[in-house]
Amino acid sequence: MKKFSYIKNNTDLLRTKLTKLQYKVTQENFTEKAFENEYWNFYEDGLYVDVCSGEPLFTSRDKFDSGCGWPSFSKPVDMENIKENLDTSHGVIRTEVRSKYANSHLGHVFNDGPAKKGGLRYCINSASIKFIPKDKLKEEGYEEYMYFFD
C-alpha cells in the first residue's frame, strides 16, 4: 500500500480550516456530545480520514453500532496512522487514540468491542474525522482504498 506524507497544518491555518468544534476536539482534546454528532448513526460505504491532515483512519466496513452515541470501529485502516497514549484524565485510566501525523485527538479505544471482530472498540469523535464516500475515493485521492469495498 502506498504511503502518503501527511503533515499537521499550523495553528492559524487550522483555526480557519476547522469549525470551532473540530478545533476543540482535535487540538484541545474535547469530547463532543454523544448522540448529537454527525457520524454516530451513519452507515454509508466509505473511508474516514483525519479532518486535519487527511490521514486514512477507518472504513465503514469496520464501523458498528456500539450504542455509545459516537462512531465506533473495530480496527483502523492501518495501525501506522494511529498512535495510542495513556489517558488518566477524568479520574479513569483509558487509552487515547490520536492520528500519527497530525497528532489530532480522535477519541479512545476500549476492550469491549465485538469479539468476532477482535474485541476492540475505537470510540471516535465525529468532529475529528471526515467521510469520503466510496464513489468519491478516486476523485479525492484515495483510490488505493477501493479494495476495502470490492
Beta-strand residue percentage: 25-35%
Main beta-sheet strand count, sense and barrel state: 6 strands, antiparallel
Radius of gyration: 15 Å
Kindly report how far apart the N and C termini lie.
16 Å
Number of helical segments with 4 or more residues: 2
* pLDDT averaged residue by residue: 93
Which blocks of ≥5 consecutive residues have pLDDT under 50?
none
* Helix proportion range: 10-25%
Shape: globular
Element string (H = helix, E = strand): HHEEEEEEEEE
Would you tell me the structural class of the helices and strands? alpha+beta
The H-level CATH homologous superfamily, spelled out, is Peptide methionine sulfoxide reductase
The total count of strands amounts to 9
Q: Largest sheet, order of strands side by side? A: 3-4-8-7-6-5
Describe the structure.
- The chain has 150 residues and is α+β, with helices and mostly antiparallel strands.
- It has one domain (11-148): Metal Binding Protein, Guanine Nucleotide Exchange Factor, Chain A (Beta Complex).
- The protein is built from 2 helices and 9 strands; from the N terminus they run H-H-E-E-E-E-E-E-E-E-E.
- It has a 6-stranded antiparallel β-sheet. The protein has a 3-stranded antiparallel β-sheet with strand order 2-1-9, with no helix packed on it.
- It is globular and about 45 Å long.
- The two termini are 16 Å apart.
- The model has no long low-confidence stretch (mean pLDDT 93).
- Its EC number is 1.8.4.12.
- This is Peptide methionine sulfoxide reductase MsrB.
- Belongs to the MsrB Met sulfoxide reductase family.
- Residues 11-134 form the MsrB domain.
- GO terms for molecular function: peptide-methionine (R)-S-oxide reductase activity.
